Amino acid sequence: MNILLLGPPGAGKGTQAKRLEERYGMIQLSTGDMLRAERASGSALGRQVQAIMDAGKLVSDDIMIALIASRIAGLKGKGFILDGFPRTVPQAQALDDMLEKNGIALDRVIELTVDEDALIDRISGRFSCKSCGASYHDRYHQPKQPGRCDICGSTDFVRRPDDTAETVKARLEAYRDQTAPILPYYRAKGLLRSIDGMAEIDAVAQQIETILKSPRG
Ligand code: AMP
User: What pTM was estimated for this model as a whole?
Assistant: First the structure.
C-alpha cells in the first residue's frame, strides 16, 4: 500500500506516518526529515536550503524533485507513506511521472483537516526523540516516563528551529497558497479522502486504518 498524507504543518502527518511505519513496516518518506539530515551533515544542499527552511518558505521544486526521485527508485516494492511531498502542483505532476517510471501506483491520498488556530499551539510545544524521531508535545503527549523516549529509551530530545510562532505563520501561508491547490488534483483522480486531524492521535490512526482497509474511490 502506498499512501500520501496531506495537511498543514502541525496536522500530525509525521506522527501518523511513524505509526504506520511501526505497525505495517511501510517506509516513511519525509522530505522535511531528508532536508534536516542534509543540514545536520553540513552538505552543500543542507547549507543551500537552511535559510529558506528557517523562514518557513518552500524549497524549489527542482531540488525537492531530485531529492525524492532517488528514494522512490530505491523502494524495491516496499509500501511507503509520503509525508511533506508533494507540496506544489508541479511536484505532484513530477511524482506521477516518477511513480509511473518505477511501475508504482499511489493507493490513497489522505488529508488531515485541522483548525488553523490550534496549529500554532500544537506546533510551538512539540519536540521529538533525537535518536528515533518519535514525536512528543509539552502539553498533549509527554513521554510516559518523563525525559525518556517511549519507543527507544533515549534521553535526548530536539526541537525544530522552524517551530516558532512567526515561522509557523509563513509555513501556513505556504500551505494555503502553494500546497492546498494540489487537493483538487488528487480529488479529480478519485484518490483523496479527508479525515479529522483534530481528533486524538489514536482516533486519527483509527480513521487512517479504516481508509486503508476500505475499497479505493
Ligand atoms: P516539514 O518537516 O515537512 O514541515 O518540512 C520542513 C521544511 O522543509 C518546510 O517548511 C520547507 O522549507 C522544506 N520542505 C520540506 N518538504 C518540502 C517540499 N516538498 N517542497 C518544498 N519545501 C519543502
Answer: 0.91
